[in-house]
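Q: A reviewer asked whether we had any structural model of the full assembly, not just the individual parts. We don't, so I'm hoping you can provide one. Inputs are below.
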Amino acid sequence: EVQLVESGGGLVKPGGSLRLSCAASGFSFSTYSMNWVRQAPGQGLEWVASISSSSTYTYYADSAKVRFIISRDNAKNSLILQMDSLRAEDTGIYYCTRDSFQGSGNYFPDQSHYDYWGQGTLVTVSS
Amino acid sequence: QSVLTQPPSASGTPGQRVTISCSGSSSNIGSNIVNWYQQRPGTAPKLLIYSDNQWPSGVPDRFSGSRSGTSASLAISGLQSEDEANYYCAAWDDSVHGLLFGTGTKVTVL
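A: Here is a predicted structure for the entire assembly that you could use as a starting point for your response.
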């Protein structure tokens, strides 16, 4: 059974940092691209970042560029989102998702979908 | 247009058919596949339709998707109370090199 379990959320002051983790199990993590999606309170879904299976390719939403870094540790079946210079508008639930794209070569995010989602971790940026 | 526009709400009685539209542009829906996600209250989103009109395992065929030009749509036939949820379309945008989600549609079963 595919499982994605996020952790690392919490309350942080504006300008602070947080490191989110996603523990994956039940599938061959190292062969799948992965993503982060967030949802502000009472709002819709917003894509944050994507990473290919071997970390060769990364993509970021404009809101995440420069401040966030997506990475992965295939040996530990773990997806990471390092978030710096946090702002109030970064508040929300952060979901880890598995990409349908599987493979070690090129990554085609325009052809994929998010077939599994974690339950999310809540990030609150407030003074 | 770096946004996918959906109607904020839709409703129907049990058994009825409901359709949700998703309007984009040539750089997103006009060029790439559309996926649909369902999010029931208090839960994580779930994949509902992928590659415009394909069903993941376990999704009933009461749900169907289509894409034409720069628009896509999701139809729910035989509406059931369990279909009350928010629905989001999503497509990659070649201009911004990122994934766009639709604005979301809340479906209410009357």
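A: Points you may want to mention in the reply: The radius of gyration of chain A is 14 Å. The CA atoms of residues 11 and 17 of chain A lie 10 Å apart.
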